[in-house]
Amino acid sequence: MKAVKRPPVITMQPESVTVFSVEDLVMRCKASGNPPPIVRWTKDGLEFNQGSDPELKVSEVTASFPFYTLSNTMDSLKQYQGKYVCYASNELGTAVSNEALLITDVPPTLQKEKKVHVKSEQGSSIVLKCNPPQSSMEPIIHWMDWRLHHIQLSQRVMVGKDGNLYFAHLTTEDSRDDYTCNVQYLATRTILPKEPITLTVTASNSVVRNKRPQMMRPAGSHSTYHALRGQTVELECIVQGLPTPDVTWLWKDGEMSNNRTMKDMFDRRLRFSSISESDAGEYQCRANNSQGAITHTYTVIVEAGPYWTKEPVSQLYAPGETVRLDCQADGIPSPIISWTINGIPVSATDKDSRRILTTSGSLILNDVNFGDTAIYQCQASNKHGTILTNTNVYVIELPPQILTEDGNKYTLTESQKALLECETFGSPQPKVIWERGSDSLLADPRVNLLTNGGLEISNVTHDDEGFYTCSVQNTNLSVNAELEVLNRTVILTPPQALKVQAGNTAIFTCLALFDPKLGSPLIQWRKSNQKLFESQSDEKYTLEGPDLIIANVGPDDEGVYTCQVITKLDMAEASGTLTLCDRPDPPVLLQITDPKRRAVTLSWTPGDDHNSPVLEYVVEFEDQGSKERNWEEMKRVSGNTERASLPLWPNMSYRFRVIAVNDLGKSDPSKPSEIHKTSPEAPENNPEDVRSESTDPDNLVITWEEMDERDFHGPEFRYRVLWRRVLGSGPTWHINYTTAPPFIVNDVGNFSAFEIKVQAVNEKGDGPEPDPVIGYPGEDVPLEAPMDVGVVLMNSTTIKVTWAAVDKKTVRGHLLGYKIYLTRTGSRGHHRGRRAKESESTMVVETGANEEKKVISDLRPYSHYTLAVTVFNSKGEGPASEMLSFKTNEGVPGPPTSLILDSPSETEMTLHWTLPDQPNGVLLGYLLQYQRVVESDDSPMQVETIDDPTVTHLTLKSLDRQSHYRFYLRGRTATGDGEPIKKEGATTLDGAPPSNISLSVGENSVNLSWVAKKRHRNVNFQIHYLNKNDGSKWKKTEMVNSSQSFYQLQGLTPGSLYHLRFTYSNITFWNVDVETEGTGVTEVQPSFATQGWFIGVVSAIVLLLLILLILCFIKRSKGGKYSVKDKEEGPMDSEARPMKDETFGEYRSLESDLEEKRTASQPSLCEESRLCSEDNLDFNGGSAITTELHLDESLASQLSRPSEGPEALHGLPDNSPLNPTTVSSATNGTPNSVTILD
After folding, report:
1. pLDDT of residue 568
2. Cα 10 from chain centroid?
């Protein structure tokens, strides 16, 4: 393919340039093609031969063709100003570049200036002018002081687009002598400092007056702004006023988008970074402060230079084909389309009927031939500029080829656009066909066949996965492509809009779902489209998984935060805002308006809400006449309200204040309002809860709830107290006055009812007429006891008590009722020949005031009782009536105290019980009922009657061994059968050996475990075991109890095969073979230690040692100083030396025995030997031989377990690991040491 000819293509367009120095004059134009193109230039439409100009130098760089100047002066460069066009030509045509404008300019310089001194008064506005030098470059203005520090800008002080410094109003702090305007030009890399300006602000002699907002820039109320599409546009509103006005922007055609516009310079500028036709319209800036508002309207007109909406495509054509070059452009005003061929206008070429120019701007070439090969230029022009595009028409005959490799795999995520490539080459243009099995691809509106042969699938889904085939029609050329569709990345939890108080921590969370085949995604956080990185020093930003943590939030942290989840194939993003918020500022300018007799209207101006809307306002008041009360809440109104109607009390001096509340808390209170006073009036209410609280019998105490001072409504406030007796006093009221409760009336006489009332009065009048209430003087205890007290027996546990009502006068108070004192003194009967001893118990029953009889239940049958009745009021009880005795009848007994079940056999059950705690009469016997427990609960009840009350057990026979029974046992008296005691149980079955025994084999032991059978008696069984490896005899264990559930067979040989046999009552019930773990022991040949002659020698040595021991003992007994005869003839010691306690029939511990065993094993006969010590050789007038018998430690430990008795030891087989080799009968099978005396 390298030999194929290619038309020229301009790869580097010449660029417009402003020349400030000789080094800046460089024009470049780069082109490619085959054969290599030749480049030429035109200037202002005329041929420009840069090579023939001695002032210019042409570079030798291949296909780049730059030229630059050799001149040393700027004056010589003016001749090169103009519009330049580059042409690149080879035999296939000529490509034309865009126009490039070359302008020469002089670098800006400062002119000599006079020092400026400005003087103004505090509160006025002023403008410090910069006046930058004239230049074709846009300057950047910096206002700085002599230390090169920027002047602090704010809503009050700011820089205009014209470079001037504007003050909305002056303060005395603005005075300084070094306001310096620094003008920066980026193109020439220069900064020009202007002459410093001195500003003097004089303090005002009077209070600085507030001023309404006024426009400083632009002037007037309306401006028109013309802009070109794609430009950066800034609308500006600089205002003066005191206090500093706030500026807001409004688009009259709709709501402004944060993506299209941005506010700058403290909201004084509205910026469009790339303005479009849709941004045209009217924009209004509104400036307002507490004194008023002013507006300025911008009419923004957006026009556009030409831009392409459809460009013609370069392509190969075969002779005879029809070529259609579509060229469409748009702009404001609409551009004009024109065509050139190889840079020559179509109108200037020979007329050809095959060429047709449509009204829409398309160029049609019919029946093309090789001579139509050329580069066609489409040009779109309006008053704002011209654009140009080159299109290659190459008429040639070439065989078709597919340039795209076979087997390409395209991996995308859902909703993306797939572009399956199938690049072909040939002339005429090969016709491409795409197929996917038998599916018709072009029937899907998402599928589009591109002119370059590619297949475009929009909004792909998993259903689009698979293999696609691209083939060239009428050939056997084809390639395959595979499409894989993965799940698209989705943000499940996007960052939220956060409102955070300064100094706190903000946390944005971004959780995403992604396809595992994409690998772990990268989470990139941005603030205002700038990347954020984790802070290393100040820990400002911390990234923890899906969280962005912003510490110590401040004003600079406000903005839009975007989370980008980036995978290899796609990206998902979501944004949240961070707004700094705080408690609101307090309201200001409180005003009291619309005063009425009992109400006023309070209005206020809201303070700054600090980005958190005010939810409500709290209105508080303070009573200037009360020193005890502080500020109190009066009313709450919603946050969108700026006034409140307040109800007032008479005779008060008010001050008000307002507190604003938002989500972050309450503001500080506002400054208090001016004082507002209300006039006094007569009371509107009387005191509440008027009552008597008398305690002394002769006094009437009248009291009430004291009224709030605010309800006094005027000076000289008092309470008027009125009272009179309900009966006997007539209508006359007794009146008195007091300033506080209570009020006491003395010597009122007998207890009776009074009407009482209390009225509020002040110097302006009386409160409303109060309603009387009934009150009483204090009570005293009743004087008399109830009369005619009687008792009627209703049954063994219930009586009815009657009495005559007392005289109300003797009660001396409110009759509350009667109290019946009922005392049980004991039982009537004898139990087993002895009187029941019980402590007395008294119950008290209260009745109502109007009752004269009372039924009392739950008495004990067959008991002695006494009864008395008293009357009582709130003061206490009167005297008791005469004591009345009675006795209750015999009743049914209570249940037996206990019931125990015992099963002597499988079909028998013995019941044992104890007497009832409460016989409630003479016990005659018992009634036993029992039945089998079945699911249907309908088994027949069987009955046994016991007529002897002394019987406390009973055996039931012929019971079903498989069933459970439920027993009911109750006592009997002459009255009837009592409450039963209930019990469930079953007989105990005969024992059986365990089944399902589990084994766990070790090196020297086997662990056996089983589950003990319920309801079965415990039995003993034995385990016989045989080592099949060493040919030894059968061995057997001790008796094992079936209730143990576990047994360990010990003393086995590692690595050996054992046969176990389990027997019960000499019958084998289970056999099993087991092999112990570990390595087997090799049989050792009998050594001399097991020979008979060696045993005989050792026995003789032991016998000799025993004789020596006896001789030593005899010698020690004689003391070694006297002959035997002297000893015998000597006087007998009257006090024979006693034998030590521990040598006479004492059992010693196993540890002591083992210790002696270790000591005694030493064969030494020296004097230090324990065999010869006094502790072991004691006598009492004769000789004593002490023999210690020691048992093997393993035997001692085995015998220390619970056993069946002495027989268990004797039943052990010889040589068993559970039985010692020799055991003296003197030990009786115990592991202790025994001392034997001759």
Report:
1. 93
2. 63
> Which pTM was predicted?
0.42
* DSSP class per residue in 231-271: --EEEE-EEEEESPPEEEEEETTSPPPTTTEEEETTTTEEE
Distance CA(989)–CA(903), nearest Å, equals: 9
Q: Assign domain 588-677 to a CATH class.
A: mainly beta
H or E segment and range at residue 1115: helix 1092-1118
Inter-residue contact 1076 to 1055 (CB < 8 Å) = yes
Which helix or strand (DSSP H or E) is residue 1157 part of?
Answer: helix 1150-1160
Second CATH level (architecture) for the domain 787-826+841-887: Sandwich (2.60)
Per-residue pLDDT band for 1090 (boundaries 50, 70, 90) equals low
What pLDDT sits at residue 330?
A: 94
Q: 315, 393 in Cβ contact below 8 A?
A: yes
Q: Which residue has the higher pLDDT, 812 or 822?
A: 822
- Rounded CA-CA distance 1210/1219 in Å is 9
The answer regarding whether domain 311-395 maps to CATH 3.30.420.250 reads: no
Cα separations in angstroms, 998 against 974, 1006, 1010, 1061, 1205: 61, 10, 6, 14, 28
Cβ–Cβ < 8 Å for 847, 854 = yes
The ranges assigned to domains in the chain are: 6-104, 113-207, 210-303, 311-395, 401-486, 490-579, 588-677, 688-775, 787-826+841-887
* Distance in angstroms between the alpha carbons of the first and the last residue of the chain: 132
CA distance 724 to 734: 6
Tokens of 717: 């406030």
**1176 band by pLDDT with thresholds 50, 70 and 90:** very low
CATH number of 113-207: 2.60.40.10
- DSSP string across 149-218: PBPPP-SSEEE-TTS-EEESS--GGG-EEEEEEEEEETTTTEEEEPPPEEEEEEPPSSPPPPEEEEEEES
Neighbouring C-beta atoms of residue 568, cutoff 10 Å: 13
Query: Residue 647 contacts by C-beta under 8 Å, 6 or more apart in sequence?
Result: 598, 599
pLDDT at 925 over 80: yes
pLDDT digits (tens, 9 = 90+) for 66-118: 666 666 667 777 888 899 999 999 999 999 999 999 988 888 888 888 889 99
Using one digit for the tens of pLDDT, what is the confidence trace for 1123-1171?
333 333 443 333 333 333 333 333 333 333 433 333 333 333 333 333 3
Q: What is the pLDDT of residue 59?
A: 65
Which amino acid, 897? T
In one-letter notation, the amino acid at residue 612 is S
Cβ pair 577, 527 in contact under 8 A: no
pLDDT at residue 948, rounded to an integer: 92
User: Residue 877: beta bridge partners?
Assistant: 872
Tell me the chain's radius of gyration from C-alpha atoms: 62
Amino acid at residue number 302: V
pLDDT for residue 1138? 37
Residues 6+ apart with CB under 8 A from 806: 782, 784, 785, 786, 787, 815, 871, 878
Q: What share of the chain is helix, strand, coil (3-state, %, to 5)?
A: 10, 45, 50
pLDDT score, position 730: 63
Cα→Cα distances 852→423, 806, 819, 835, 858, Å:
119, 10, 11, 37, 20
**In this structure, is the dihedral angle defined by the CA atoms of residues 355, 357, 361 and 364, taken in order, positive or negative?**
negative
**591: enclosing H helix or E strand:** strand 588-593
Q: Which residue has the higher pLDDT, 1147 or 224?
A: 224
Query: Over the chain, what is the mean pLDDT?
Result: 84
With contact defined as beta carbons under 8 Å apart, do 598 and 581 qualify?
A: no
Name residues whose C-beta falls within 8 Å of residue 276's C-beta, 6 or more positions apart in sequence: 229, 230, 302
Please give the structure tokens belonging to residue 831: 């139990």
> What pLDDT sits at residue 61?
52
